[in-house]
Automatic annotation (TrEMBL):
<feature type="domain" description="Malic enzyme NAD-binding">
    <location>
        <begin position="307"/>
        <end position="560"/>
    </location>
</feature>
<protein>
    <recommendedName>
        <fullName>Malic enzyme</fullName>
    </recommendedName>
</protein>
<dbReference type="InterPro" id="IPR012302">
    <property type="entry name" value="Malic_NAD-bd"/>
</dbReference>
<feature type="binding site">
    <location>
        <position position="447"/>
    </location>
    <ligand>
        <name>(S)-malate</name>
    </ligand>
</feature>
<dbReference type="GO" id="GO:0051287">
    <property type="term" value="F:NAD binding"/>
</dbReference>
<keyword id="KW-0521">NADP</keyword>
<dbReference type="GO" id="GO:0004473">
    <property type="term" value="F:malate dehydrogenase (decarboxylating) (NADP+) activity"/>
</dbReference>
<feature type="binding site">
    <location>
        <position position="283"/>
    </location>
    <ligand>
        <name>a divalent metal cation</name>
    </ligand>
</feature>
<feature type="binding site">
    <location>
        <position position="306"/>
    </location>
    <ligand>
        <name>a divalent metal cation</name>
    </ligand>
</feature>
<comment type="similarity">
    <text>Belongs to the malic enzymes family.</text>
</comment>
<feature type="binding site">
    <location>
        <position position="192"/>
    </location>
    <ligand>
        <name>(S)-malate</name>
    </ligand>
</feature>
<dbReference type="InterPro" id="IPR037062">
    <property type="entry name" value="Malic_N_dom_sf"/>
</dbReference>
<keyword id="KW-0479">Metal-binding</keyword>
<dbReference type="GO" id="GO:0046872">
    <property type="term" value="F:metal ion binding"/>
</dbReference>
<feature type="active site" description="Proton donor">
    <location>
        <position position="139"/>
    </location>
</feature>
<dbReference type="InterPro" id="IPR036291">
    <property type="entry name" value="NAD(P)-bd_dom_sf"/>
</dbReference>
<dbReference type="GO" id="GO:0009507">
    <property type="term" value="C:chloroplast"/>
</dbReference>
């Protein structure tokens, strides 16, 4: 992937440092008082100890009925709370019961968001302890509906809104954010929210949800997370005509105006928070996603989950599958249906891993990977009309239109669906896969479930139980001829929280593709014999904090090896460091 991006950067590499950049963060003097001359205006920031009513209204410190007698006396809380004292465990039990009583996912989502606004630690405790149940509530699929209805469920602003109105003042906007030591920013421009298209300013639900996962699954402190939505307008007619729409009511700005605002934002982030803040681009339309990653990859610590996170999680699944099958990744031939952010991102990381393992040049390993888009197989005769990120995949071959014909022509050992179009892996296609392979690997990655290229049941039954299968959306275990098969879920939440933690704890200043490979290897390393015996190629999500710690450690190791880490000297035990860095949601005792 770096290599594709490298071509777009005209030869620059992630390791080519910007000579003007400084490693030190700007957090010590973010408000500029120290540097301001006397004639300049400064913000009169004060820090005070919260007590009484203010303490109860402060989500970071509020403990609700868990305040002890001593704390109630010391912090002027007498009479502001009913007399019962309830432990955090009991509060958690009560909330879980309440949330389970709601019928609609959106009600559960709203209840969780209200809890986050009221009592941050309790929110995270609940989420961490019940991750498999609550992940779909705070993130996909529910967050998609929440974004669609964001205008009507919007009560209080979350995150930072940077619109075209703020052009020229972005640094000041960043300074309005109350927390100073930011480590991870998730930013969207709302143009391609999940599979739902342009939701404009309402895309804010995505950075908010993603960062909640950074904390819950990767242990990044909530106060170090900043959700940002860049509002350059929307082309969504429904929103433009909605009197309650919360964003800019204009069509999307593009070209120079768009890139100037983005550039101002990227510059201001570095100026305000320094070089070690991770900026994750999220749900940008693919023309901008590739462009932004290529443009800022050599000057900022940037990561795109849709491209790089997906690639790493899918590679991890493939590495696990190979442990089941035996052999080397370079022995395989891949066919992708779908050549967008996910497809080309995954393809590039696989090619890189093949090249690393077999010591064959990347240009050669790419030839083992074929991609199809809506116009058919990507072949050299189409090169001139292809988008730049598809060009490396235009191999010599006669044109092929349909997927079945492509399977018969290419004879892939691995079939991957990243088209966003459901039911495209037909019975004939899957039977062809099993005709050419004893154990075909079939990954139907498109989300949501209705867009999955095939179901788990279809994959197992049409291959007579021979397929190694994983999907983007979850499927229940399938019983086929007396045997139970457990489909894996290729979920990005396996990778990005651990990757982020590894970058933060090593003080990394750039993301390098070797870190994505390391993350994939670390994730695959967490799949045990027991999981393999069920056919699983991913470990269960309930162990996610342990998984994240291992990913973080391997990513940090790479950062040190590449000279991209700034937290020196290198700590001896990086897994231990990762575990000790993780935010704990347990209540603290107040003096
Ligand atoms: P995208 O819009 O960038 O790319 C879609 C690609 O599919 C394009 O190349 C398009 O030409 C092609 N396509 C569309 N219709 C087609 C058809 N009928 N036949 C062949 N190709 C067709 O979208 P992106 O971001 O790459 O996502 C694609 C899908 O992958 C989505 O459904 C998304 O939910 C899923 N995805 C899954 C992930 C996971 O499992 N961890 C992570 C990221 C995305």
């Amino acid at each position: 992937m770096e290599s594709t991006l490298k071509e777009m950067r005209v030869g620059a590499s992630v390791l080519d440092m910007d000579p003007k950049s400084t490693v030190g963060g700007g957090v010590e003097d973010v408000y500029g008082e120290d540097r301001a001359t006397e004639d300049l205006l400064v913000t009169p920031w004060t820090i005070s100890v919260a007590s009484g009513y203010t303490l109860l209204r402060d989500p970071q410190h509020n403990k609700g009925l868990a305040f002890t007698e001593k704390e109630r006396d010391a912090h002027y809380l007498r009479g502001l709370l009913p007399p019962a004292i309830i432990s955090q465990q009991l509060q958690e039990k009560k909330l879980l019961k309440t949330i389970r009583q709601y019928q609609l996912p959106l009600q559960k989502y709203t209840a969780m968001m209200e809890l986050e606004e009221r009592n941050e630690r309790l929110f995270y405790k609940l989420l961490i302890d019940n991750v498999e149940e609550l992940l779909p509530v705070v993130y996909t699929p529910t967050v998609g509906e929440a974004c669609q209805k964001y205008g009507s469920i919007f009560k209080r602003p979350q995150g930072l809104y940077i619109s075209l109105k703020e052009k020229g003042k972005v640094l000041d906007v960043l300074k309005n954010w109350p927390r100073k030591s930011i480590q991870v920013i998730v930013v969207t421009d709302g143009e391609r929210i999940l599979g739902l298209g342009d939701l404009g300013c309402q895309g804010m639900g995505i950075p908010v949800g993603k960062l909640a996962l950074y904390t819950a699954l990767g242990g990044i402190r909530p106060s170090a997370c900043l959700p940002v939505t860049i509002d350059v307008g929307t082309n969504n007619e429904e929103l433009l005509n909605d009197e309650f729409y919360i964003g800019l009511k204009q069509r999307r700005a593009t070209g120079q105006v768009y890139y100037e605002l983005l550039h101002e934002f990227m510059t201001a982030v570095k100026q305000n928070y320094g070089e070690k803040v991770l900026i994750q681009f999220e749900d940008f339309a693919n023309h901008n996603a590739f462009e932004l990653l290529a443009k800022y990859g050599t000057t900022h610590l940037v990561f795109n989950d849709d491209i790089q996170g997906t690639a790493s999680v899918v590679l991890a699944g493939l590495l696990s599958a190979l442990k089941l099958l035996g052999g080397n990744i370079a022995d395989h031939t891949f066919l992708f249906l779908g050549a967008g952010e996910a497809g080309t991102g995954i393809a590039e990381l696989i090619a890189l891993e093949m090249s690393r393992q077999s010591k064959v040049p990347l240009e050669e390993t790419r030839k083992m990977i074929w991609l199809m888009d809506s116009k058919g197989l990507i072949v050299s005769s189409r090169k001139d009309s292809l988008q730049h990120f598809k060009k490396p995949w235009a191999h010599e071959h006669e044109p092929v239109k349909g997927l079945l014909d492509a399977v018969q022509a290419v004879k892939p050992t691995v079939l991957i669906g990243t088209s966003g179009v459901g039911r495209t892996f037909t019975k004939e296609v899957i039977e062809a896969m099993v005709f050419y392979n004893e154990k075909p690997i079939i990954l139907a990655l498109s989300n949501p479930t209705s867009h999955s290229e095939c179901t788990a049941e279809e994959a197992y039954s049409w291959t007579k139980g021979k397929a190694i299968f994983a999907s983007g959306s979850p499927f229940a275990p399938v019983e086929y001829e007396g045997q139970v098969f457990y489909p894996g879920q290729s979920n990005n939440t396996y990778i990005f929280p651990g990757l982020g933690l590894g970058l933060v704890m090593s003080g990394a200043i750039r993301v390098h593709d070797d870190m994505l490979l390391a993350a994939a290897e670390a994730l695959s390393g967490q799949v045990t014999e027991e999981h393999f015996s069920k056919g699983l190629i991913y470990p269960p999500l309930c162990n996610i904090r342990k998984i994240s710690a291992h990913i973080a450690a391997l990513v940090a190791t790479k950062a040190y090896e590449l000279g991209l880490a700034t937290r020196l000297p290198r700590p001896a035990n990086l897994v231990k460091l990762a575990e000790s860095c993780m935010y704990s949601p347990n209540y603290r005792n107040y003096r």
